[in-house]
Structures are given as C-alpha cells and as structure tokens.
Amino acid sequence: MVTVRPALDHDLDVVCHLLTRNELPVLGVKEHLRDFFVAEEDGSVIGAIGLERYEETGLLRSAVVDRSKQGKRIGSKLVDTLLRSARATGVKKLVLLTNTAEQYFARKGFRTIDRSTLDGPVTRSVEFTDACPSHAVCMEKIL
C-alpha cells in the first residue's frame, strides 16, 4: 500500500536521487524539504513533491514518481496532498514550471500562462532563476 507523508531530513538523498534519475532539478530541494511530501511503499520512498511558499503564491516543484511505479495514481496522491496542504496554509495560487508534464497538470486543473505575467517573490525562486530552463512551460491553478 502506498502512503503519503511529510518528508523528513533523512529522505533528502532518496528524493534527490529520484529527481536526478528523472532529469529534474535538485537545486533548492534541501532548503525546502520541510515542505515536501513523499510517497512510500513497503518502507521505500517511490515519489516526491514539493511546495515552496511565497506569500499567497505557492510553487509546486519536483513532482516525481519512480519510473517502475508510474501509472498507479501515485502522482495524483502526491498532487492531491500538496493541494490540500497549500489550501490549509493560505496559498491562493499555485504555479509550476514543466518540460514534460503539461498535459498531466492540465488534467489537474492547471492552465498554461505566460511566464512573464508572474511577479512577486516566486519569480526570484531557484526554480525560476536557475533550475528550470527559460523554455519550460509555466502553469497556474487558482485555489
């Protein structure tokens, strides 16, 4: 059975390993690990997702599921958990950058936006300034 729980300090290495194996950035993960969730099965971390808070805007980042476990709704469990957490902590809008998951997040209610329309502290995050290429698709969801 897959469970989703808040990430703990000892999860950092496995989360970074999952991200690296799936060609996703690890910059900034350590600094925001307290706002990550992990999916666990039989004591092993098989997925992760992060939330960075910038005032009322949240940045969804580092959504990953081990390739051998994809297609089993684990990603949905992670996204749903993150959405509940974001709402509960006063986040009004979630944004993300993606190179590969635009259709997936569109099914989750995110819409593509022009990256240049964003302002505020989220645009100074590592994800926006260093970790993701400028051609990454920017998406948002109003909560």
Please give a structural write-up.
There is one protein chain. With 143 residues, this protein is α+β, with helices and mostly antiparallel strands. It has one domain: Gcn5-related N-acetyltransferase (GNAT) (Aminopeptidase, 3-Layer(aba) Sandwich). 29% of the residues lie in helices and 32% in strands. The chain has 5 helices and 7 strands. It has a 7-stranded mixed β-sheet, sandwiched between helices. A hairpin with a 2-residue loop joins β3 and β4. The radius of gyration is 14 Å and the shape is globular. It starts with a strand and ends with a strand. The model has no long low-confidence stretch (mean pLDDT 93).
Key features of this structure:
single chain, 143 residues, alpha+beta, Aminopeptidase, 5 helices, globular
Short synopsis of the structure:
With 143 residues, this protein is of the alpha+beta class. The chain has helices at 12-21, 29-32, 74-88, 102-107, 126-131, and strands spanning 2-6, 36-41, 44-54, 57-65, 93-98, 111-113, 137-142.
